[in-house]
Amino acid sequence: MNTQVLLKVDKLSRRFGGLIAVNELSFYVNKNEILGLIGPNGAGKSTTFNVVSGFFKPSSGTLNFNGQDITGFKSDRVSRLGLVRTFQHDSMLRDMTVYDNIVIGTFSSIKHKAERDARVRETAELMGLIEVLDNVAGSLPHGLQRLVSIAIAFAARPKLLCLDEPLTGLNQTEVVSVLEIFHRMRQEYGISILLVEHNMKAVMEICDRIVVLDHGEFLATGTPEQVQSNPNVISAYLGKRHEKQ
């Protein structure tokens, strides 16, 4: 695997008044890597996502993306550089067709209509949405709606795709299908993925490495096998980490 660093997060903190949501967190994402970011509820995963993608400014620390300091950049500027995210809840426009939703993701990178159309269809083909391009997005089953939200982000062909709980509400068959799509994104398009997800079985299957947060702080990192056997991680997930202190 190419081990060139794509995203470097260094001593990142985010405070909300007196609450420290993320505290001096450091981690990195390599090019062509799928990295999982996990932790118990309230661990700071969503806040980290919001800071990395430019929706929140960091209170302290630095962010470097593809060799450029992006600390404090707003979300639109970050996305133009090739770091694009999805949201926990579907971010599609429910009253528009699938086609019109996906085309939104191409506006920042493609000027000509014919090229946009080709990008939308190529994206829909990969995502399994080609048969429903003319359907109103809000009329689709939940699993397909999740795919539309991912397709909007993927249509920009980002360097790093940040996925915030993309498997929520999917059945096991749908999960397997979506994980295969993520593999193809990496293999065929060279896209790196930063994944926040509660489905631990899926995380362990697809991620090259995992970073674990607990109470806004770095807890552990390693391969799925290393993380699964880490006693600190096991304790954090069982809620017993502080009982004996």
The total of beta strands comes to: 10
Per CATH, the class of the largest domain reads Alpha Beta
Task: Compute the separation of the termini in Å.
Answer: 41 Å
Anisotropy-based shape = globular
CATH-level-4 superfamily name of the largest domain: P-loop containing nucleotide triphosphate hydrolases
Strand order of the largest sheet: 6-7-8-3-9-10
Index terms:
245 residues, alpha/beta, Rossmann fold, 2 domains, 6-stranded mixed beta sheet, 4-stranded antiparallel beta sheet, 9 helices, disordered C terminus
Structural overview:
One of its GO terms (molecular function) is L-isoleucine transmembrane transporter activity. It comes from Advenella faeciporci. Keywords: ATP-binding, Cell membrane, Membrane, Nucleotide-binding, Transport. The protein has 245 residues and is of the alpha/beta class. The chain has 2 domains: 170 residues, Rossmann fold (3-Layer(aba) Sandwich); 65 residues, no CATH class. The protein is built from 9 helices and 10 strands. The strands form 2 sheets. Strands 6-7-8-3-9-10 form a 6-stranded mixed β-sheet, with helices on both faces. A 4-stranded antiparallel β-sheet has the order 2-1-4-5, with helices on one face. A hairpin with a 2-residue loop joins strand 1 and strand 2. Helix 3 packs parallel to helix 5. It is globular. 39% of the residues are buried. The C terminus is likely disordered.
